[in-house]
Structure formats: C-alpha cells, structure tokens
C-alpha cells in the first residue's frame, strides 16, 4: 500500500502556540511532536498515511546542521536536509513503514541529501544502507550520524526490499 506524505508547516513566528499533531496514544514520544517550540526556523513536520490511517510522524530541520566534531564526514552543503525525528506508530512497527517513509522522502526531495542523528535506532539507519559517522570527541559518545548515500547506494537499498514493500 503506497504511503501518503502530508506536510504540516507553520511560520516560525507562531511556533510557540502551534501544535504539529494532535495527541495520540499510538506513539511513545510526545516530547517532539506535541510542540514545535524547539524547532529551528519554520517548523516542518510530515504526517504519513497508509490507506488513510496515520502510521508515522516525521520532523525535518531545514537544512539542519552537521557537527564538525564527527570524523570523516563527506562535504554536504546547502543541499542537506535533516530528519530531526521519525516515529512509527507502535502498532505499525517492523513492517518496513519507516524504510518506506525514508525512501519516499528521498524520492520527494531528489535535490536534497538527507541525514539524521540516530536516537537509539542505529540498527534501522544501518539497515537503510546509510553510512554511519561517529563523534570524535573524547567522553561519552554522541549520537551516530547517518547520511543518505549516493544514488548508487540507494539503489542497493531498494534491491533489498521485495517489490510489495516499495
Ligand atoms: C526506529 C523506527 C522508526 C523503525 O520503524 P519501523 O517501521 O519499525 O522500521 P522498519 O520496519 O522499516 O525496519 C527496517 C529494519 O530496520 C531495523 N530495525 C528497525 N527497528 C529497529 C530497532 N528498534 N532496533 C534495531 N533494528 C531495527 C531492522 O533490521 C528492520 O528489519 P527487520 O524488521 O526485517 O529486522 C521505530 O522503531 C520507531 O519509531 N522507534 C521510536 C522512535 C525512534 O527511535 N526513532 C528514530 C529516531 S532517529
């Protein structure tokens, strides 16, 4: 079943009072989608529907920032676009929803290079075939940075999915 991406965007001037998504018990982490007050610039969220039912929520940070403290990071300029958060509804997990969401976002933004700092989801980003980069500073490790690979890498990722999962 194809996914539908619905943008929820607002002006930065109203982000303190604007609510990106209604409250839902289908998600575990209301801290990021219940308020846009932490957004940098104009808040930009994406609602993901499958057959009319919401299955995931995403927040972009446009363009987002790549930390200079991460080692061997390729040069990514103004084309970068950060997936600040992605969360799949608890009941919809482990059936490739997040995989299809990220693929759909990549397809929708062919001129951008997506990246994300993993919040406890290194296994997922690694599954996508995105390359990991690590905080080189001493001390507690920062979140792993994953950057969308070149188009060849994306084709390899697609080949790992059965046609019905695309
Ligand atoms: C991480 C998350 C987005 C994955 O969503 P999903 O739709 O279940 O992921 P997919 O079904 O597309 O997973 C594809 C593959 O990624 C890997 N993967 C997914 N979730 C994983 C997890 N929690 N731990 C380790 N590997 C995981 C697996 O290899 C999986 O394939 P498999 O199910 O055949 O083993 C979802 O678990 C979630 O919303 N978690 C809470 C919020 C969060 O951590 N977001 C990420 C912030 S960066």
UniProtKB/TrEMBL annotation:
This protein's record includes keyword Electron transport: no
N-acetyltransferase domain sequence ranges: 22-112
Q: Tell me where the transmembrane regions lie.
A: none
| Keywords noted in UniProt | Transferase
Q: In the record, what terms sit under GO molecular function?
A: acyltransferase activity, transferring groups other than amino-acyl groups
The keyword Ligase appears for this protein: no
Q: Which residues form the signal peptide?
A: none
Q: What is this protein called?
A: GNAT family N-acetyltransferase
> What organism, scientifically named, is this protein from?
Mycolicibacterium hodleri
């Amino acid at each position: 079943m194809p996914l539908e991406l619905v943008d929820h965007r607002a002006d930065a001037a109203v982000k303190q009072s604007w609510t990106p998504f209604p409250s839902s018990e289908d998600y575990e982490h209301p801290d990021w989608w219940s308020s846009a007050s932490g957004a940098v610039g104009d808040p930009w969220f994406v609602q993901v529907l499958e057959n009319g039912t919401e299955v995931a929520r995403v927040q972009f940070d446009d363009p987002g920032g790549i930390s200079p403290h991460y080692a061997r990071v390729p040069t990514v300029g103004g084309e970068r676009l950060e997936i600040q958060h992605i969360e799949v509804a608890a009941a919809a997990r482990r059936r490739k929803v997040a995989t299809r969401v990220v693929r759909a976002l990549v397809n929708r933004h062919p001129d951008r290079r997506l990246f994300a700092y993993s919040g406890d989801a290194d296994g997922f980003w690694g599954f996508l075939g995105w390359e990991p980069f690590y905080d080189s500073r001493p001390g507690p490790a920062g979140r792993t940075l994953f950057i969308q690979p070149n188009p060849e890498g994306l084709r390899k990722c697609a080949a790992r999915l059965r046609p019905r999962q695309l």
